Amino acid sequence: MSASLSSEELERYARHLVIPEIGVEGQRRLKESAVLIVGAGGLGSAAALYLAAAGVGRLGLVDGDVVTLSNLQRQILYGGGALGQPKVEAARRRLLDLNPGVRVDVYEERLTAANAAALVAPYQVIVDGSDNLPTRSLVNAACVRAGKPFVYGAVIRFEGRVSVFDARRGPCYQCVHPAPPPPRAVLDPAEAGVASALPGTIGTIQASETLKLLLGIGSPLTGRLLVYDALNASFEYVTLRKNPRCEVCGPAAED
Ligand SMILES: [Zn+2]
């Protein structure tokens, strides 16, 4: 049975209800949906704000950091009053102010090999807003094992990347990145920098992809990598293919 919508919700989501692909049924579906956001930084800020605004009924946030001054250049969940506070607590306050009808579960910790499966379990779609390869690989492996899609996003300087990895319908992250790159080949955001609005653009696309997956509408970025070059204002697509010998999602994978 679908959750019903109150008169206040009918007004709050009025611009959704008139869209044929969403409507009352879609809005009820969003209300019953649960999304985990790994990392409450620049990508997670944009994704969480829009998913809360859109009426996703249950949001989970995983992040073990506190808010620092250098975060405020791009992490729009936080204001100056949140400096020094745990990100997930400040984020929950902001999200509940935006939409008190949403449940926000917070996990003040890093996602690790030990807790990944338990963190992913209650949620239908996982949004990866982490800024490092080890976490991303753990998210991928946990999602493959759980049979859930994860919405990938990455930003550095003026370039952003976004895709949907769902091993049931296409490649997983490990299919595309079978071996970790050499250490110096990957730029560290803290050293290389991130342009302010870039994680907003990519995190917002991650939110749109998540809503599409929850609603079962449109063509998700499964099997396609979208590369955004903010300096050139260009969007390009790269086709991603499943690796039949993938160690994570292939037949040789052990669970
Ligand atoms: Zn794979």
Keywords:
18% strand, 35% helix, eight-stranded mixed beta sheet, Rossmann fold, globular, 10 helices, 255 residues, binds zinc ion, alpha/beta
Short description:
This protein is an alpha/beta fold and 255 residues long. It has helices at 7-12, 14-17, 23-31, 42-54, 87-98, 116-120, 133-146, 173-176, 189-192, 198-215, and strands at residues 34-38, 58-62, 103-107, 125-128, 150-156, 159-165, 224-229, 234-239. It has one domain: Rossmann fold.
SSE map:
Blueprint: H1 7-12, H2 14-17, H3 23-31, E1 34-38, H4 42-54, E2 58-62, H5 87-98, E3 103-107, H6 116-120, E4 125-128, H7 133-146, E5 150-156, E6 159-165, H8 173-176, H9 189-192, H10 198-215, E7 224-229, E8 234-239
Parallel strand pairs: 1-2, 1-4, 2-3, 4-5
Antiparallel strand pairs: 5-6, 6-7, 7-8
Helix pairs in contact: 4-5, 4-10
Describe this protein's structure:
By secondary structure, the protein is an alpha/beta fold. The chain has one domain: Rossmann fold (3-Layer(aba) Sandwich). Helix content is 35%, strand content 18%. The chain is built from 10 helices and 8 strands. Strands 3-2-1-4-5-6-7-8 form an 8-stranded mixed sheet, sandwiched between helices. A hairpin with a 4-residue loop joins strand 7 and strand 8 (234-239). Helix 4 (42-54) runs parallel beside helix 5 and helix 4 (42-54) packs across helix 10. The longest helix is centred in the last third of the chain and has 18 residues, at 198-215. The chain is globular and about 55 Å long. The site of zinc ion has 9 residues, from helix 8.
